[in-house]
Amino acid sequence: RLTSAALTPEELPDIDLVLVSHAHFDHLDWRTLRQFDARTQVITALNTRDLLGWTKLRKITELRWGEQTEVRVPPNQRPSEAAIDPLFVRAFPVRHWGARLRSDHHRGYSGYLLERCGRRVIFSGDTAFTNSFAGLRDDRSFDLAIMGIGAYEPWIRSHCNPEEAVAMAKAAGARFIMPVHHQTFKLSFEPFREPIERFSAALADEPERIALREIGETFVV
After folding, report:
1. What is the pLDDT of residues 49-96, one digit of tens each?
2. Which strands sit side by side in the sheet containing 41-45, from one edge to the other?
3. Helices 162-172 and 194-202, interaxial angle, to 10°?
4. How far is CA 13 from CA 8, 16, 36, 169, in A?
5. Which of 102, 120, 188, 192 is buried most deeply by CB count within 10 Å?
6. Nearest alpha carbon to residue 9 among 27, 25, 32
7. Residue 22 · residue 125 · CB < 8 Å
8. Which of 175, 122, 170 shows the shortest CA–CA distance to 146?
9. Long-range CB contacts (within 8 A, 24+) of 40-44
10. Residue 113 CB: number of other CB atoms within 10 A?
11. Rounded CA gap, 200 and 194, in Å?
């Protein structure tokens, strides 16, 4: 690992929901997921539920592309927030692959749309460039697109580069863009700082759309 996590498990607040985009080791980490108990719900890609059997997580929903589910927090779990509104989560197709090992190519991979109280967020998961994001656009804008920007050299067929990430977020109609999937693990050959520098350059004419630049910063939708 190249950069420490911004927060330790002990520093996290209560976590209502974990999104798992696919089964790759840098996205589904058993040591991390074992920190959560049965109160935390999970939404994951198709054919990945079995990998969570090593954890205490039990409220697990697998979504196919195009499927949607509603996430509610039981009142007895958050008594001070008994009237909390539900979160709607829908899976959409991206361009990647889901196998954890060399033999389990049946596993799925997804991006997710999240909506609650009129706010809408796109989480890309891992993806190469695809027109799926343009297909998400409708008569309402998205408040935020969380886009992977790293691990593209030489894996451009599996991971978009920063300029492609910006283009896909814009095609979907996202107001702000949050760069992720960079400066964390050594997965590829591009220089350490190149993804975030290229991302910032791609939005040089619209810097106000950059949700954050550095790991550990905070952005509030």
Report:
1. 999 999 999 999 999 999 999 999 877 766 555 557 999 999 999 999
2. 17-20, 41-45, 59-63
3. 40
4. 11, 9, 11, 29
5. 120
6. 32
7. yes
8. 122
9. 40/15, 40/16, 41/16, 41/17, 41/71, 42/17, 42/18, 43/17, 43/18, 43/19, 43/69, 43/71, 43/89, 43/91, 43/112, 44/19, 44/20
10. 17
11. 10
Q: What does the block give as tokens for 139?
A: 């008569």
Q: Specify the residue for token string 């759309």.
A: 209
Residue with tokens 């090593």: 54
**pTM score > 0.90 for this model?**
yes
Reduce the DSSP state of residue 24 to 3 states and report it: coil
**CA 122, CA 145: separation in Å to the nearest integer?**
5
Structure tokens at 121: 């967020």
Which residue type sits at 57? L
